[in-house]
Amino acid sequence: MADSSTSKTATLSIDGQSYDLPMYTPTAGPEVVDIRKLYAQAGVFTYDPGYTSTASCDSTITFIDGDKGELLHRGYPIDQLAGNSHYLEVCYLLLYGELPTTKQLENFENTITRHTMIHEQMHNFFRGFRRDAHPMATMVGVVGAMSAFYHDSTNIHDAREREIASHRLIAKMPTIAAMAYKYSVGQPFVYPRNDLDYAANFLHMCFAVPAEEYVVDPILSRAMDRIFTLHADHEQNASTSTVRLASSSGANPFACIAAGIACLWGPAHGGANQACLQMLQEIGTPDRIPEFLARAKDKDDPFRLMGFGHRVYKNFDPRAKVMKQSADEVLDLLGIEDNPTLQVAKELEKQALDDDYFVDRKLFPNVDFYSGIILEAMQFPMSMFTPIFAVGRTVGWISQWKEMLGDPQNKIGRPRQLYLGSTKRDYVDIENR
Ligand code: CMC
Fold it and tell me: Which of 34, 35, 164, 245 has the fewest Cβ atoms nearer than 10 Å?
């Protein structure tokens, strides 16, 4: 850990005994109290389910200011990256810490492009799944199975093997996601093409068929690239923390990323993009919005406004701002006028932001609110929304994994608990219960 310690300490008092706890000053964000020695010194644990006040690691990759609605990758604001950069340049930035020179970017793009094919034998894995399997289920299985094929990049103690695994994962994830899609619609797999850029290649693998030529629309590949960029990393979110925790035991990178994909699938996390479009379509017309807002506010109804709210952002999610603009552009460029789902989304956003319930709780649209509208316009089925999130987030998982393994203080993640179960008792034979 970089030395960020201060002379400041926090004092905790328990039963008249005081404990001084060291404090750290981050380059941005709130100060941090170090409780690592607390149990050894005071014999108590801290309690923080959901990690609402706990920094699980130190990191130099991504910073979010939730009150300002700001997201920085290695210091660069996401709107600048989404507007001026492109996904593979952002991948380089996240992985290596600095924007690349022309030569560095050329080499990196070349490496990623030349790792996009998967081992031919892996095609058989897909055929083991039912055709109606959710593509996320297929991805969890196939990405985990990469450990069985790429033995030469599973030694986590070797920096070069770690780098090869990183490149393989970033390069092969679009191929795997596209194959999961092709399998689900009963079409032949389409091999990657090295003359296309990352996003265009992904669209080609998803939508081309052998029977006729498919030319990727540059408008759509730009929008796809932006979606990947907006999802690239988001500091210690649930799936990234899952990857870090899995990796802390020394598990291989493919197993760790498969764990991240599994976590991302949930509707409170990456699964929200699919759930959000389903919700917008269920609402259907603006006149039904008040009914759904009432349900979202009703504590006896489990319904939540999908694509709304965030653990860290207490202001507009900056990714949602770019996504909203992108949705307008894509629909406009595709000549889709008066898209009813977009109309419902805009009106829902307006009414929610005027409603005290959402204002008081600082609930704003998040990245998932508008992404589904763009993906649907591109002809993706809803089941592909979360796999696309996984493709974009792979670089974030990998960068955080790499950072963690490079930290000499890295140790197995092992939370403690507030135990509320039975105390010790004797086993009772079945006939005496
Ligand atoms: N609709 C209605 N009420 C909500 C919502 C929502 N979407 N989100 C939070 N609330 C309410 C919640 O009921 C609680 O109210 P009260 O204080 O009266 O009990 C308050 O706001 C705080 O909610 P919380 O559940 O304590 O907040 P959290 O930080 O644990 O949850 C969240 C964050 C993202 C899981 C949650 O806002 C949510 O479920 N949103 C919908 C799902 C979603 O869009 N997820 C995508 C997140 S961004 C992309 C990603 O991470 O993958």
Answer: 34
